[in-house]
Amino acid sequence: MIVDIVRDGAVDVLLRVYERGAHIDAALNKTLRRKPISERGRRFLSQLAYGTVRHTRLCDHVLSGLLRQPLHDLPAPIQIILRMGVFQALFCNQVTFPAMVHTSVDLAKKRGHAGTAKLVNAVLKRIPQRLDDVQLPDETRNPSGALGIRYSVPTWLVENWIQEYGLDTARAICEASNQEAPLTLRVNRLKSDIDTLREGLARAGCTADKTSAVPEELTVVDGNPFKTKLFQSGHFAIQDAASMLPAHLMEPKPGDRILDVCAAPGGKSTHMAELSGGEARITACDIGFGRLAQIRENVERLGTPGVQVVAADGLRPPFRGGFSGVLLDAPCTGFGTLRRHPELKWRARKEDAARMAEKQRDLLRYAAQLCDNGGRIVYSVCTFTQEETTEIARVAESLHNLDPEDGPEWLNQWRISKGLYRTLPGPGNLDGFFLMRLRKAS
Fold first, then answer.
1. 1 pLDDT exceeds 70?
2. pLDDT score of 400 more than 80
3. Which of 245, 264, 309, 417 has the smallest set of CB atoms within 10 Å of its CB?
């Protein structure tokens, strides 16, 4: 029996994500390397995989009203085929409803048996074909439940967002976190500038626009920048605009000696090197040996001088100090990057933020020890939980030789108090980040 190779590949990807705990980008790349799929097919496979994970809870909600048994009692491949079917019906305008049903039944025959194929056929023929036809809880009576199902976010997480930011902002965070993330470029100042890079990409068949106030940001509208010589020769890096803010908050200058504590894959280290004109000394550390190769690869491709890569644990640093600046881009819950890593929301637990905050506090204390008197520390996380952000700021205040300090004025649009900055998913099309700049007293 011949089945659609793209949808069959998507099942492989989703089995790795749901059953083996793989990251979706790694699972997708593994499948794409193994299967001879056209460029158009690769884009659709990516849409299927990311979209199904992104909308898992909504898909399960739709299916729960049509199945006689709990969805999780079915074999894992059949669960995935049903979820993919709902996702295609509600969000893939290029797929006709009959084609969705037919290809799903073929997949169920291959991945199961005649009985599961019959089940898939019966269920998918009855699912709604428009999002407006999906029955959701009443938002006025149950806002966290309604938003959680509509935007496929765990209810406890929505409740936290409503409590911390109010209903309207929580709704905006849910909506933005469930959208497809744009492909954002960071121009390499050592080799190009915004206008030159945009013109060069256009000649290569790739359209990119300026969408934020971050100086080096360009967002791809159309085309594949990875296939251009500009990428291969290091004229730009792939990085979200919010992730570019920590390097600007550090304000690296020629002659600075800066430690990047958790540096992989090297985006912030290379950015600081570029901002200093290649004249700062950047020590890029990470505990994972495999991740060190990513840093070296980016340093080599971008041609950023002054970046030294070191295997080191931020909780057991092999240094005695001597750094004029320390960047701590700390491990965190990652809730600000759900549009890029939608699998994180299905693995998150209520206690994760408190657990991560404990490690962040320890890392911050070591960062303070390694920073010279009069030097600066920049703390950043790609999340916005209170435990990992404002509560960490209070920890910094308890370290008597650290004082919050404002960064460049153009960052004030994200400033929430002296030395503290935050971006939220929603307006502005940035990932969610929290940043803090501290000055170590002499």
1. no
2. no
3. 417
